[in-house]
Model the fold of this input.
Amino acid sequence: MQYPALFAPVTLGRHTLRNRIVLPPLTRQRSGQPGDVPTDLMATYYGQRAGAGFMVTEGTQIEPRGKGYAWTPGIHSQAQVDGWRKVTDGVHAAGGIIFAQLWHVGRVSHAALQPDGAAPVAPSALQAKKVKAFIETGPGAGVLVEPSAPRALTTAEVKELVAAYANAAKNALAAGFDGVEIHAANGYLVNQFISAHANLRDDEYGGSLRNRLRFLTEIVAAVGAVVGPDRLGVRFTPLFTSTDQDRVYIGLVEDDPHETYIEAIKVLEAAGVAYVSIAEADWDNAPDLPETFRREVRRVFSGRILYAGRYTAERGARLLDTGLADLIAFGRPFIANPDLPERIANGWPLAPLDPTTMYGGAEQGFTDYPAYA
Done:
């Protein structure tokens, strides 16, 4: 077997995973319309990739205001819950384990995507820069646009959003998911609260780092009360430097990312969550995470640590061997290779990804990538 470290079983909360290869959250924009409902085609897509030790769905908006891109699925209506049930049933029939990623884009949206054409909501009324929303211009057609100027949430509305995350977690259980992941990365709503550059609030949710982490802390507690901390993970993007200013959307770059994210991970440790997922910059010549940061994550967090980024099987296995990671996610390779674990285990070549079919559309570039023959 190639790269045995990737195929050693491991526990994740109450689950036992057959390997350490993860399908991470990958936006594909193929939900059914109207209503952003998961489809039979989506069930096929996830079922094809159930050989992963662990799977996380694409970002799934917790309420209508949480949407920043046309055709992304939600988990706030009964029709959406019913659609996701088809996905989880298919994954479970194939022996897989799947979590739902709970998502709210906050200010990374456009009025055309918001109920009644309202402004997007955010911690503060600061417009998102160097990032795009995606709006529909016709059936199956759309365009990238600058996000609309947001309005700041009131303190009461922030607390209502905490409850909305908990309700989405209830819906995830009703849909048959094995757990949930809170999306706190990539410059979206939770990340906006954490960031000193996006959060200028003067109430209990702003100012000090402790206050900026309060929204995350309350969501983790509320969602954990629904699903159990052992069925809960959180995703961060702790970018340490940005050498490519056109790609800042990977996350909000903090003045002291080490302190910010180690303190955030301490929140997860105190709550006893099952895992932390750390998404690294994934473009060419992107900066690596400092070794000191990886070691500090291992020191302060006793749950499972998942890394995602530009990982090859060799690089992922090497990180597992250091003991600094427990799970490795493979994004684009898993899109083009539904049987990725089998290909890695046998040393079979990987099929190339067609980048033109990543977002939107139907079967092409979604469910028509073949298994290795």
Summary: Residues 243-250 have pLDDT under 50 and may be disordered. Residues 155-174 form the longest helix (20 residues).
